[in-house]
Specification:
The chain has 225 residues and is an alpha/beta fold. It contains seven helices and nine strands, in the order βββαβαβαααβαβαββ. The chain has a six-stranded mixed beta sheet with strand order 5-6-7-3-8-9, with helices on both faces.
């Protein structure tokens, strides 16, 4: 497999009134194109913090995150970083964060409208195709409040995939779903990986789902094993 992301000596601290809180304590890792990796570990060990730094939503205290070909996103200007993040990285969170006043297809279209708003027809067609692939074509004009929890999370997945990112970072994507809906969502993520070769890095507490990923890494005391 071709290397997609390399992490070198990654550390992240937060500075509190009581002093420095070290969360990430020197992580080295490699993530390859087209693989599905789960990250497991107890609550509070730094899994979400690691995902936020990997996704450039937060800056490391020290160390490097390198996206091939040899791009350190933290060396980019704020404007360049926003463009990079929008094109290369997709995000799925435990809560779907859909905008309640917009329909499913309008929510999916949001990243495209931000980056290429003048190409409305193209963005609409991409969003429509993704919703169809995720089994939501008939629900595309429904607002989030009219959808089930599993359907809302599938809309969030479609939104993350709209701009064909190289990697999707998913933080407890099944955490708010019942067992059946969580299983269905996970199956869809694996299908998308197989069809489109998108890399998935998934933080999860669900042991049975993590075992079906290509690799599982465990975070213990701020380090990956």
């Amino acid at each position: 497999m071709k290397e997609l992301i390399s992490v070198e000596g990654l550390e992240k601290s937060f500075y509190m009134p009581a002093g420095e809180l070290k969360v990430l304590k020197g992580i080295d890792a490699v993530f390859n194109e087209g693989e599905v990796v789960s990250i497991v570990g107890a609550s509070g060990v730094g899994k979400s913090t690691f995902l936020h730094v990997l996704g450039t939503l937060d800056k490391p205290t020290s160390g490097k995150v390198i996206y091939e070909p040899e791009i350190n996103p933290f060396d980019l200007s704020n404007g360049e970083l926003a463009i990079f993040r929008n094109k290369v990285i997709g995000f799925i969170f435990q809560f779907h964060y859909l905008l309640p006043e917009f329909t499913a297809i309008e929510n999916v279209m949001m990243p495209g409208m931000i980056s290429m708003g003048s190409r409305y027809k193209e963005i609409y067609e991409k969003a429509e195709k993704l919703l169809d692939e995720l089994g939501l074509y008939a629900r595309k004009n429904h607002k989030p409040g009219e959808l089930s929890g599993g359907e809302q999370q599938r809309v969030a997945v479609a939104r993350a995939l709209l701009l064909a990112p190289k990697v999707v970072l998913a933080d407890e994507p099944t955490g708010n779903l019942d067992t059946k809906a969580g299983e269905e969502l996970f199956r869809l993520l694996m299908d998308i990986n197989q069809k489109h070769g998108i890399t998935f890095i998934i933080v999860t507490h669900n042991e049975s789902l993590s075992k079906r990923c290509h690799r599982t890494l465990e975070m213990v005391d701020g380090k990956l094993h």
